[in-house]
Amino acid sequence: MQIQTLGDLFAHPGFQTLFLTILIVFANVIIGVSMLPEDRRKRWYRLHRYIYVATVASLGLFLYINHQLQGNDAFVYFVAAYFLTAIPFSRRMNVTLHAVIASVGLVLLIGMATLSVL
Questions:
Q1: Is 1 within the bounds of a domain?
Q2: Membrane spanning segments where (predicted)?
Q3: Which of 30, 37, 54, 110 has the most CB atoms lying inside 10 A of its own CB?
Q4: Residue 87 lies in a domain
Q5: Mean pLDDT of all residues in 77-92
Q6: How far is CA 57 from the centre of its chain?
């Protein structure tokens, strides 16, 4: 199915789930930045983790829907592997490095929205 209008784009189920994933990741980045002071870290950590799990679940839903509609390519699997490996492992390093790697993940999701759905 060729997407020709903006209405067709927002009606595409793959784009809807990917857009939801982008919004969840953006919310998680905002929560992660807001918990940078040491006194807030313990209170917000659990919420930050739950939103990450929601991100992975939403990304998995996108993988399933996109596979049913048009099939997944290597870039989509690379972004999914990035979210499953690079972001959790970077959390053990430096907080600032973790924020940068998570922001790169957000950029990869936006790139995936433009390349895989369109």
A1: no
A2: 15-37, 49-68, 74-90, 97-117
A3: 54
A4: yes
A5: 89
A6: 10
